[in-house]
């Protein structure tokens, strides 16, 4: 199996960890931040519902789905940046030999 340079691996996991922390912060703000500030957020409405209710009922779910798609795209770009190839991973897991 191909050896990976420690600096490359550290950079890869540093970027991935940073992104996970950002996604968790977005999730926290969307789910709990709206509840903490429900009273001031109830002054305007979305689709006839108070904003805090809309975010609790539908907005948080939509935000999490969007974050999932963003995570997939960003993760693919980070993988390409560091030379991680899905087809090589599939070949390794199937037991086929690879030329490194």
What is the compact description of this entry?
The chain is mainly alpha-helical and 100 residues long.
Biggest beta sheet attributes: 2 strands, antiparallel
What is the molecular shape? elongated
Order of neighbouring strands in the sheet with most strands = 1-2
Helix-strand string: HHEEHH
Helical proportion, percent range: over 70%
Unreliably modeled segments:
none
Number of strands: 2
Beginning-to-end CA distance, first to last residue: 8 Å
Strand content: under 5%
Q: Give the overall average pLDDT.
A: 83
Rg value:
20 Å
- Number of discrete helical segments: 4
Global structural class: mainly alpha
Structure description:
This protein is 75% helix and 4% strand. It has four helices and two strands; from the N terminus they run ααββαα. The chain has helices spanning 6-36, 38-41, 51-81, 86-94; strands at 45-46, 49-50. Strands 1-2 form a two-stranded antiparallel ribbon. Strand 1 and strand 2 form a beta hairpin.
Jot down its keywords.
two-stranded antiparallel sheet, 4% strand, mainly alpha, elongated, 100 residues
What topology emerges from the helices and strands here?
Layout: H1 6-36, H2 38-41, E1 45-46, E2 49-50, H3 51-81, H4 86-94
Antiparallel strand pairs: 1-2
Helix pairs in contact: 1-3
């Amino acid at each position: 199996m191909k050896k990976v340079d420690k600096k490359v691996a550290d950079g890869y996991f540093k970027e991935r960890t940073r992104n996970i922390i950002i996604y968790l912060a977005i999730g926290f703000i969307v789910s709990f931040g709206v509840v903490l500030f429900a009273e001031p957020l109830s002054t305007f409405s979305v689709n006839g519902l108070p904003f805090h209710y809309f975010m609790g009922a539908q907005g948080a779910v939509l935000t999490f789905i969007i974050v999932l798609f963003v995570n997939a795209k960003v993760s693919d770009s980070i993988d390409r940046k560091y030379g991680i190839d899905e087809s090589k991973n599939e070949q390794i897991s199937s037991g086929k030999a690879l030329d490194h």
